[in-house]
Amino acid sequence: MLDDNNNQSEQGLNHLDKLLKQHWNLGQNILLCWCLDSQGILVLPAPHYFLGRFSASLGDCAPVDRLDALNGSFIRELISGTRLLSAEDFDGAVSRLRLEPVRVKLPSPLSATPENIAAVDGLIQRYSINYVKSRAVLLFDIVDFSLVSSFEQTSQLNSLSYSLNSAHSKLLEQNIDINFSRTTTGDGYYVWHQHDTPRANLELFEFMILVVADNALAQLAAAGASSGQVVPKIRTGFHIGSHFEFFQVEGLNPGMNCFIVGDVTIELARMLDLAGSGQIFIGDFDTVVPTSSREEAYLIAADSQRFVERAVKQMAGLKGVSLSDETIESIHCFLSGESGACGGQTVRRFRITDKHGRTRNVYNLRINIRTANRPVMLGLHDSELPGKHARRKADGSRQQRKKAFQGLRSKPSASIAVFED
Known about the structure:
Number of strands: 18
Distance between the termini: 53 Å
Number of helices: 10
Structural class: alpha+beta
Helix content: 25-40%
Largest sheet: 13 strands, mixed
CATH architecture of the largest domain: 2-Layer Sandwich
CATH topology of the largest domain: Alpha-Beta Plaits
Number of domains: 2
């Protein structure tokens, strides 16, 4: 709040928003950071092409110029998290980047309350590009989307969207506000939690389980009901990594919905290139997880396997949730190759080589859901996967369709190699 009166606070923020919009100038400038000033705030704008000078370091490439590398690293830190700087750090950024700051005058001084800081920081970020170091992101991809009619495509996207909304609603009933965002890929959705905390990553995993389960139950309900393919068959990817984000423009203003692109979205797209219908791939990542669901829980390091193990413990709270008239009695998730403490098996990793020759490791996830009426098995069974040391190339018919769209240009084929962890 700008003062003790809520109405004046709202008016003050609206006035600040209009002034920031002028300095943004339809996207000509991005706002890098800000600091408090006796007359309002100081803002550091940069032309939208300014960051292009540091694209190598910002994109984790090898920059030629060492100074550009250092400045690129500095900018990445600058656009991560809060944009509020102390007066000293703000002056340092001005001097280092050789940009001209602007003073945004306000009708009354801005008191440095947490509410004020959060509100102004949110406005600044809407007129900027943001970098997130680590966040869980989902990719739901509809199988054979291009082979059905436009009406069926619309119906399939609507069905998948309903599954997302239904999962959100069910988690809200469990006092879990997933607060998710999404962007369409044309034949599916990228989905992420608006918070990038370790707990939010676990909540997104639970969200994924409910979405995939709702979709599977909808497929069962639609089987034999008609000849139309209105419920999609999907493949799913879950990964944790970095990305950039910016807010999409609505009319001539930055909207409230953001768009993300970066390592995590690229990895997800490549992961699913060779995924089969119904398959769930988990990326190979390192992160941290809370030791319990309590607010005071401390964080411990976790790889993909430990993350899934921790998520399984948290999903006990989903018992009793109803999906498509089916009540969940229990949920068990495991990575392919796991058979329990007495099984003696190890988790298998899949090394995917994409059409560009780049490789990445993934895990195959299986989900067993027991409901009051039936068991629901999600993900591909081991018998449907390549064996140890086997290699599988992309489906021939899919490759033929790709070639048709690519003008029959030959490209390296993608493949999967399997090995034990």
